[in-house]
Design brief:
The protein is built from 5 helices and 11 strands; from the N terminus they run E-H-H-E-E-E-H-E-E-E-H-E-H-E-E-E. With 251 residues, the protein is an alpha+beta fold. Strands 7-6-5-8-9 form a 5-stranded mixed β-sheet, with helices on one face. The protein has a 4-stranded antiparallel β-sheet with strand order 3-2-1-4, with helices on both faces. A two-stranded antiparallel sheet has the order 10-11. A hairpin with an 8-residue loop joins strand 6 and strand 7. Helix 4 packs across helix 5.
């Protein structure tokens, strides 16, 4: 596991306040529960002689990922009146901890990070796709790309035999061209975060074409994983926790 993300924790001068909190958001009073947990952790740090300026700095950032529901945790580090790092954890810690030591205590964070994967989320239809790449343990994407391809003859139509065949070929070729460009965006996104998995949702035909393009030149170290396709709903929906203009279902 690459531990370079921990380097900023050791750049402080003096003692480091290290906090690991349960910041799960699954009830109406989640904000109040998190506030109480932080209050207890803050008191523990103060009793250990933590710098008042460091505590004040943590006051301004504690709270977890407010737009992510469900179980989660937060690791916070401060020293010398400044915040060294704040990380969202995929699972709450086994118990809240707050220590003030000459060096940071990132063990719970490192153990949590070891169980997470960098990944790419793709919401695709026959016109293009929304591509989001998430580093391991990130609540927000570090890479986003939206591609809207050509829509001329994108829909098959009822017509005479010759015309129908011509429109059919044009539609299929256009779908393939659009998803070929999406595949390039997916490869770039996967390389950006060194993704271990790709999740694809959306129009069943577009999913199949995208998988075909990716299989000819797969992103390094990645195997696509596709959700069971469902009937498209509205043009604007929610995919994987974010608003998307693609017709997709959540993986």
């Amino acid at each position: 596991m690459d531990l370079q993300f921990l380097r900023p924790l050791f750049d402080g001068d003096g003692d480091v306040a290290s906090v690991h909190l349960d910041t799960s958001r699954g009830t109406a009073d989640s904000d109040k529960q998190i506030e109480l947990r932080w209050r207890a952790a803050r008191s523990a740090l103060a009793e250990q002689g933590a710098d008042a300026d460091a505590l004040a700095a943590l006051d301004g950032v504690v709270g977890g990922a407010r737009d992510v529901p469900g179980p989660q945790g937060e690791a916070l580090f401060a020293s010398g009146g400044r915040v060294l790092a704040v990380h969202t954890m995929s699972e709450p810690p086994s118990g809240d901890t707050a220590v003030n030591l000459p060096v940071a205590d990132p063990l719970p964070l490192a153990l949590d990070r070891d169980h997470q994967l960098a990944h790419v989320v793709v919401a695709v239809d026959r016109e293009g796709a929304d591509v989001d790449a998430y580093p391991a343990a990130a609540a927000a994407p570090s890479f986003q790309r939206t591609f809207n391809g050509s829509t001329l003859h994108i829909t098959r139509v009822r017509a005479g035999a010759v015309s129908h065949a011509a429109y059919h070929r044009r539609s299929v070729n256009l779908w393939s061209e659009n998803t070929e460009q999406v595949a390039e965006d997916v490869r770039e996104a996967a390389a950006e975060v060194e993704a271990a998995v790709i999740l694809i949702a959306g129009d069943p035909k577009a999913i199949g074409l995208l998988r075909d393009h990716l299989s000819t030149r797969p992103p390094r170290g990645v195997g696509p994983s596709t959700s069971r396709a469902a009937e498209p709903t509205s043009r604007r929906s929610t995919c994987c926790g974010r608003a998307s203009t693609r017709r997709c279902t959540r993986p």
